[in-house]
Specification:
The chain has 266 residues and is mainly α. The protein contains 10 helices and 3 strands, in the order H-E-E-E-H-H-H-H-H-H-H-H-H. The protein is globular, with a radius of gyration of 18 Å.
């Protein structure tokens, strides 16, 4: 597809220019809808109450893509010193993540985030603050699997697909999403096969308190960082732009978004 079958085995191996070009094309084609949630402006009826404040769902306008502005918005909420902002951040990420199914389902999943579902606790001011603080500390220590597991126990966030979305928005430079599309795509490409346990990427979807899942997600983040670093070393001709007005440096989340496009086409 892109990487050689020895890329994971050999940490010193660089990506080829052909692979870099494919990743660049895929990142520029990334078109995930730019959905989000906001606190309700004065005079606007709230769709839901979050931490005592009214909030609204903001479905994406036709053609609106996830962009750097939305990345910054989610990161700001999730890292805010105000606890209700962090609750809104979690809700907005869940809504964003389910919007490709349909809007009613995405809203239902936000409700489940707060109500609790499947034996998981609903998100509240205290457990959200604790979980995000723990994730941020683990990210700073470069323990990506345990950062993911820090969200375990909160409804909708105990499995890789949605826990990793929160982690990716918390630290886009060093982390990315690992969802079913990524896992299924990795299972279909030969370059993801490796005997190196420190580089295994396949089979990373599951409950985030499983050692296998934490290890795979940690490896995934390191892999994304490695590719981003190599792409940035190639210079301006390989910077991505997508909907941004100027060329952009690669982050881990950008590599994941390029692979989301490529692996989804397998």
């Amino acid at each position: 597809m892109c990487f050689s079958n020895t890329y994971l085995q050999n940490p010193a191996e660089a990506i080829t220019l052909a692979c870099a070009h494919r990743l660049l094309q895929a990142r520029n084609a990334y078109n995930y809808p730019g959905a989000k949630m906001e606190f309700a402006p004065p005079g606007t009826p709230a769709h839901i109450t979050i931490g005592g404040r009214g909030a609204i769902f903001v479905p994406p306008l036709p053609g609106t893509r996830t962009d750097l502005t939305l990345d910054v918005y989610h990161q700001r909420l999730l890292t805010s010193g105000t606890r209700v902002d962090r609750l809104l951040g979690l809700a907005s990420v869940v809504y964003w993540g389910f919007i490709t199914h349909n809007d009613p389902l995405a809203r239902t999943r936000v409700n489940w985030l707060f109500q609790g579902q499947g034996g998981q606790a609903g998100a509240n001011l205290q457990n959200t603050d604790t979980a995000l603080n723990n994730s941020i500390a683990e990210l700073a220590a470069r323990r990506f699997g345990t950062a993911l597991n820090s969200l375990n126990g909160i409804s909708q966030l105990s499995r890789t697909p949605f826990g990793s979305k929160v982690i990716a928005f918390l630290s886009p430079n060093t982390a990315g999403v690992y969802d079913n599309r990524i896992m299924n795509g990795l299972n279909q490409v030969t370059w993801s096969i490796t005997q190196n346990r420190g580089a295994e990427l396949r089979g990373g979807v599951g409950n985030s308190n499983e050692q296998r899942v934490m290890r795979r997600y940690h490896n995934w983040c390191l892999f994304l960082q490695r590719v981003a670093t190599q792409l940035n070393h190639l210079g301006n001709d390989y910077r991505w732009a997508c909907t941004e007005p100027t060329p952009q440096s690669w982050r881990a989340i950008d590599v994941e978004r390029a692979l989301f496009q490529l692996l989804g086409a397998q």
